[in-house]
Design a protein that fits this description.
Blueprint lengths: L18 H18 L2 E2 L5 E3 H8 L4 H6 L1 E4 L5 E4 L4 H10 L8 E10 L11 E10 L4 H18 L6 E6 L3 H17 L6 H9 L13 H5 L10 H17 L4 E2 L11 E8 L8 E7 L3 H4 L7 E7 H11 L10 E5 L2 H17 L5 E3 L6 H10 L4 E5 L1 H6 L1 E6 L7 E4 H14 L3
Parallel strand pairs: 1-5, 7-8, 12-13, 12-14
Antiparallel strand pairs: 2-4, 3-4, 5-6, 6-11, 7-9, 9-10, 10-11, 14-15, 15-16
The structure holds one RNA strand of 77 nucleotides.
Length: 428
RNA sequence: GUGGCUGUAGCUCAGCUGGUUAGAGUCCUGGAUUGUGAUUCCAGAUGUCGUGGGUUCGAGUCCCAUCAGCCACCCCA
């Protein structure tokens, strides 16, 4: 084993047995975004380290100890993106997409964080994300949540996830509350556990989210974020809730829901599941009205979310995905030298004549017996047979492998028609 | 970064308190059928027992280190 080079820890191969699930998810998501008028954007995987420091926050875990950062040959510090929002905002500013206009964008791709791998958590993982720009109201917040809710319905996951919602207030009121909270916690520093003492510096609001039972009394007595919301944020949040109520989307208001990235303000939300162990957040996002300006653009309201693809795939695996059939319709079996020469050409002609037809051509010779075995394994419902006899007569055999229909011989032209009508009958 | 559990054929696993040439199922290949698959029967192929050290007359089995996987903490999608 040591002679073999292994994949880098926490970076997984996505093998053919799961790629159908990935395609199903990606296809469904694309259709969903089209239905809401969102446009795709693709950003580089590598960005300046500075971008993430300025957006995610210098003292967050992500920036302090989880980024894959390296020096480029010319001395620039670069980082494999740990999330998508920063790059999306950068791309928007750089290309003038955010200047005095509205954008609804989506992206998907790999992200990198150097964490200890665990169920639902990998060093290379995939996110599908959505960002909107130039829209300040609770209506866009609601649209994003409705869109995600529709996705769960389409994927058959509606019963597996639940929505948690909170408001952090404007960046000003959040900052003010943060100071009040820090002061409170500072006064009780002796009662803080080790994690919370660390969070006091990095992300004090996260102390409220502690799972430690011994911290609960202290947390319960702490000043409440909701009591320190500015009036505009409170109204924004109430309107969002009303929109969700009207749409019949159920949610739980979780006053401890805080999110780890510095740029969030006002609305934050998470879709969580109890079916994936410790990494239960499947989709999360929020408003980041200050980020565009922070990255050098003109002040622009923004709201987005990201989904963890591996986690969604894991959920889909539990519920079973619809039979998306990428298997061939027909497996072409070839016996004899002439057939081996003509087989590839016959397959090409059939693909020309019958759009959408999936044919797997046998390569590499072997007995009829072994070829039929492979035909069976391929999952194809039909075997096409080209042997010496068929070659001489200019014909081809078609044998159903999944029902007890008779094997038939026909001309190549007839075979094309037969296959076309077969595909129509089976609605494929 | 911290802790617990696990590493034996491509895959799923057995291998008792250390004792000769390391096993099963599956998969793969060939045959029983000179041109017909999933069943059955027969035969065959495949392992540096994760890696490196140590203890021992002898290590898959015990000890240490290391790497990887899983789970939890932490973090977060």
């Amino acid at each position: 084993m040591s002679k073999h080079i292994q994949a880098v820890r926490g970076m997984n191969d996505i093998l053919p047995d799961v790629t159908p699930a990935w395609r199903y998810l990606e296809g469904t998501v694309r259709g969903l975004f089209d239905a809401y008028g969102y446009q795709e954007i693709r950003m580089p995987i590598v960005e300046s380290t500075e971008l993430f420091k300025r957006s995610i926050g210098e003292v967050t875990d992500i920036v302090e100890k989880e980024m894959y950062t390296f020096e480029d040959r010319n001395g620039d510090m670069l980082t494999l993106r740990p999330e998508g929002t920063a790059g999306c905002v950068r791309a928007g500013i750089q290309n003038g997409l955010l200047h005095n206009q509205t954008q609804r964008l989506w992206y998907s791709g790999p992200m990198f964080r150097h964490e200890r791998p665990q169920k639902g958590r990998y060093r290379q993982f995939h996110q599908i994300g959505v960002e909107t720009f130039g829209l300040a109201g609770p209506d866009i917040d609601a649209e994003l949540i409705l869109m995600s809710a529709r996705l769960w319905k389409q994927l058959g996951l509606a019963d597996a996830v639940e929505l948690q919602l909170n408001s952090l207030g404007s960046s000003e009121s959040r900052t003010a509350y943060r100071a009040i909270l820090v002061e409170y916690l500072w006064h009780h520093a002796d009662q803080l556990d080790e994690d919370s003492q660390r969070r006091l510096n990095s992300n004090p609001l996260r102390v409220l989210d502690s799972k430690n039972p011994q911290m609960q009394a202290l947390i319960a007595a702490a000043p409440k974020l909701s009591d320190h919301l500015d009036a505009a944020s409170r109204e924004h949040f109430e309107q969002l809730c009303a929109l969700l109520d009207a749409a019949g989307v159920r949610y739980t208001i979780n006053p401890c829901l805080v999110r780890g990235l510095d740029y969030y303000s006002k609305t934050v939300f998470e879709w969580v599941t109890d079916k994936l162990g410790a990494q239960g957040t499947v989709c999360a996002g929020g408003r980041f009205d200050g980020l565009v300006e922070q990255l050098g653009g003109r002040g622009t309201p923004a709201m987005g979310f990201a989904m963890g693809v591996e986690r969604l795939i894991a959920l889909l695996d539990q519920g079973g995905i619809p039979q998306q059939d990428y298997r061939p319709h027909a497996y072409l079996v070839l016996l004899g030298e002439q057939a081996q020469r003509e087989g590839l050409l016959l397959a090409e002609r059939l693909r020309d004549a019958v759009p959408g037809l999936r044919i797997e051509t046998h390569c590499g010779g072997g007995s009829f017996k072994s070829q039929f075995k492979k035909a069976d394994r391929s999952g194809a419902p039909l075997a096409l047979i080209l042997g010496e006899e068929e070659c001489q007569q200019g014909r081809v055999g078609i044998k159903p492998l999944r029902d007890d229909g008779e094997q038939q011989q026909m001309s190549h032209g007839e075979a094309a028609e037969w296959l076309a009508s077969y595909m129509q009958q089976t609605n494929d």
